[in-house]
Amino acid sequence: MQGSTYKDLRLKSAEYVASTNCDGNAIGGVSVGEPTELMYEITDVCCQVLPKDKPRYLMGVGTPANIVECISLGVDMFDCVMPTRNGRNGMIFTWEGMMNMRNEKWKNDFTPLDANSDLFADREYTRAYLRHLYVSDEILGPMIGSIHNLHFYLDLVTTARQKILDGTFATWKDEVLPKISRRL
Amino acid sequence: MKFTLQKEDGKSNARAGLIETAHGMIETPIFMPVGTLGAVKSLHIRDLKNDVKAQIILGNTYHLYMRPGMEILREVGGLHKFNGWDRPILTDSGGFQVFSLSHRRKIDPQEGVWFQSHIDGSRHLFSPEKVMDLERTIGADIIMAFDECTPYPADYKYAKNSMETTYKWLKRCIALLRLRADPVPDRAGQHL
Lengths: 184, 192
Known about the structure:
The complex is a heterodimer of chains A (184) and B (192).
Chain A: H1 7-19, E1 25-27, H2 36-49, E2 56-58, H3 64-73, E3 77-79, H4 82-89, E4 91-94, E5 97-100, H5 120-124, H6 127-135, H7 140-166, H8 169-181
Parallel strand pairs in A: 1-2, 2-3
Antiparallel strand pairs in A: 4-5
Helix pairs in contact in A: 1-2, 2-3, 3-7, 3-8, 4-7, 6-7, 7-8
Chain B: E1 2-8, E2 15-21, E3 24-28, E4 30-32, H1 45-52, E5 57-60, H2 61-66, H3 70-76, H4 79-83, E6 89-92, H5 95-100, E7 103-108, E8 112-116, E9 123-126, H6 128-138, E10 142-143, H7 156-180
Parallel strand pairs in B: 5-6, 6-10
Antiparallel strand pairs in B: 1-2, 2-3, 7-8, 8-9
């Protein structure tokens, strides 16, 4: 689907695409610089029209908070370069919030990236060490950042799925959104 | 590709489902790591499977067409064989990249898009039919129709034209896939 940020065009596009009876439907032309609220509105308009028995793919979205919001609007599939691109630059996404690992703040923090994670890298490397790697341009820094962020993104959608199956998604969403959106 | 809706949330429009492909199942909602050129940057396939627990990754038609090119992918028998990932792959059509990366674009709604490669400046045409064949050669489990990705901001008239072109191209993609419908069972998973 296309239609920019015009709701009537998005509606028409969703009706057109739904009428072709493809195996799955994708919402494109989002995450191209439009305000977040508009992206949510468009996604909602499309999801209202798209058939329920076909998967819905929102292309190029987004931050952890964007993903949780759009899951709640009825999106099934996401992709984004953010976990790897930001991971290479030192921006780490966690359940507690976003961390800029180049920040002075982590210089003497010798605690693991995330002691409770099931990812080896989160338990084996400290924040201070990871900061050192980024600041010194060591190739291991972007490697740890990339695997960490992708692991977090998969953990996020897997948890969301479990909460939907348990019937506790709405409560979980309200709890988790403020945390994953903040900067540590 | 087959989708089963497993559960709908009572308090929102969230859903849980299952997608079945020739290379395995995908539990939704899902996030798909981006492997533009056939690699998720800096990660081994082993990392993606064991640590990230990725169920499906992306490839990009525009980028893979430029490098390594279709001759290599045809010779090796598709992207799965080339990069060693044996789970599902989704390919983006390259519509976005034709608009964001290439130079001297010329859109001809009847034909497709003429553009210059961002690598060596060579001239290429992407049409809905051509992109479907490219994605079939890459061998993705889920393929995307060739669209005209509307930039932001766009005025109403531009957005309307672009949306209508995308719909026309979608119908051409579907027609081409019907034409190519392969009787061999393990190639029956050509999807949109």
